Amino acid sequence: MRDIPLSRAAPLAAALLALALAPLLAGAFHLRFLAEILLLGTAVMSLDLLVGLGGLVTLGHAALFGTAAYAAAIAALHLGGNLFLVLGAGTGAALLMAALMGVAIMRSSHLFLLILTLLLGQVAWEVAFHWREVTGGADGLRGLPPLSLGPWRLDGPRALFLLSGGLALAAYLLARSFADAPIGRALVGAREQPLRMSALGYSIPRIRFRAMLAAGGIAGAAGSLYPFLNLYVGPQSVHWSLSATMIIMLVIGGVGSLWGAFLGSAIYLALQTYVSAYTDRWQLFVGLVFVLIVLLLPRGLAGGLTGGLAGSLAGVLSRRGRP
Length: 323
What we know:
This protein is an all-alpha fold.
């Protein structure tokens, strides 16, 4: 059995420990806050599959996340809050949106890719904002029924946190499997050497399409649970500004690290929640953190932490090896 590298095993062990201890130590507000970090972090991690592996920077990722949120909310309002029904409706809607977006961007790259995904995301926002009979328009959808699994209600802070944590863990393992699989390697190859990959017989549009489906499915699963944190979903969940926010979170956490997405979302949401309690200029602090990360830690917080941990371990081992 292949050994798990330290850079992957340590974050996974820390995540499992945090998931086990948080329900015992945190209050109701903090559990919901942590659940929001986990769900947004999962969506950002799915974006990392496109950006970190494929170099496909998109401003339409919120359309996948928000479409799933709307689909899950609509299904819950009409059919009830059954967990599997909600996850199925949201993830299915996100996969459909990802397929449409994937067809549009299969042969696009760089600036054209950015503009196309921005336009597609704005189409989703227009639908959410103006189709009032279905989406609630600018008011969004409120009064959602709580999530349930058979006779059990899953609307408490502890239940929502555990659901979000379980989803985030499963999504991480799925994303890691995708990155390590031949399709993930091919996606990296398509980013680095597209002409050589084409000459070897690989279909780059097909590789990008599959990556978009994988990212859409993971983002959709996270978006399906997101409305049930506050029993509300609105047009801002599909707006391009949320896509830009996800990119900021990804850069802060570390592009290409997968688990760094959760660090980035935690830093951003902590600044938004706690700094905004003292000043309306909390985004200035986000910008400062962003600039410092880009200048001092080009690989993000995850890269800095992994590099520091690996360097410390190497130093300890080298000292032990000396006579």
